[in-house]
Amino acid sequence: MIPFVDLKIQYNSIAQEVDLEMHKVLEQTNFILGEPVAEFEKEFAAFCDSKYCIGVASGTDALHLALRVLGVGPGDEVIAPANTFVATVLAISYVGAKPVLVDIDPRTFNMDLAKLEGKITPKTKAVVPVHLYGRALKMGLLMDLAKKHGIQVVEDACQAHGAVWEKRKVGSFGIMGCFSFYPGKNLGAYGDAGAIVTSDDTLNKSLKMLRNYGSPKKYYHDSQGYNSRLDTLQAAVLNVKLKHLIEWNKKRFRNAQLYNTKLRGVGDIILPKIPSEGAHVFHLFVIRSKQRDSLLKYLQERQIQAGIHYPVPIYALGAYAHLGLSALDYPVTEKFSKEIVSLPMYPELSEGQIDEVVGCIKDFFKQS
Ligand SMILES: Cc1ncc(COP(=O)(O)O)c(C=O)c1O
Fold first, then answer.
1. Would you say 224 and 210 are in contact if contact means Cβ atoms under 8 Å apart?
2. Helix (H, G, I), strand (E, B) or coil at 351
3. In this predicted structure, what is the pLDDT of residue 79?
4. Exposed (0-12), middle (13-18) or buried (19+): which is 335, by Cβ within 10 Å?
5. Confidence band (pLDDT; 50, 70, 90) for 368?
6. CATH dotted code for 245-367
7. Looking at the domain covering 7-242, what would its CATH class be?
8. Dist. CA 93 → ligand 1 center (Å)
């Protein structure tokens, strides 16, 4: 069996340190906003080339609170890519704004910046670009467009911890950058967790209150905030794991290179483009095939866990049926949703395991 992600093998490699740090929290009983949270916020802000980090309960909350603190609300439009995890768009709905979707670029899977400008209207307040699968978006071009039209950029970097665009980490370009530490992410906690990074003093102060019942001081509430704090136990785990992130991302990159070399010319497979190291942290390794459904079934029957990210584009989800959007307006997303397969990808995946996945794919095309 080759798992899609192997959290156990990674835990085994850091168990002593993680157990020790979690034990310290249990001993000190500083479960809510304990020291490990502040320590993580300091380290992760620096890691992301940002002044501040605000730890929150999940990546979804990070996106929600980021839009909330900007004052985005009913009557406003917020632009997002048509192929993303639903949470990107849910955050827009939570604040009462209207999601406006843009098709994806066939070369990068990210939002097609050539199509972005056509979606901007006087109601557009913000754009939420997603560094999908771990690939950094062309942030220079995006920031220029946003500046030209006076709209805010909130980066969804939930899949791209440590990805770099022209020497700067993603998350640091927009007014805020949002991260998820869902266990399977490149930097994953042992439960739900998330963070916002920003270099804006006022937003940092407001977000620190907003995640904590809108409270600058216990029992004094300046706004109707939320209970969305980064859990201290999760912060203790993240402090240990952050030290390994660069090395883990390098291993993911090496694994992507191995897949690309070994899968070249196999069947009708279209491989992802590999940019320079750092520009893609390969949260997911996504290939395309016209025979996707039978290939996926073949892999799964042979105990190779593969997946689809995402099988149903946002405009086709029941949750967004009310937007009345047509697949015809998103030809690349529509086509790709029927062709994409995500292969097992994690730092500890060995070359032997990659050979097994590749062998299985070759067998599939021989018999098909
Ligand atoms: C692109 C993207 N945005 C948002 C999220 C939401 O993060 P979370 O699951 O931590 O709420 C995720 C991950 O789940 C994601 O992949």
1. no
2. helix
3. 99
4. middle
5. confident
6. 3.90.1150.10
7. alpha beta
8. 15
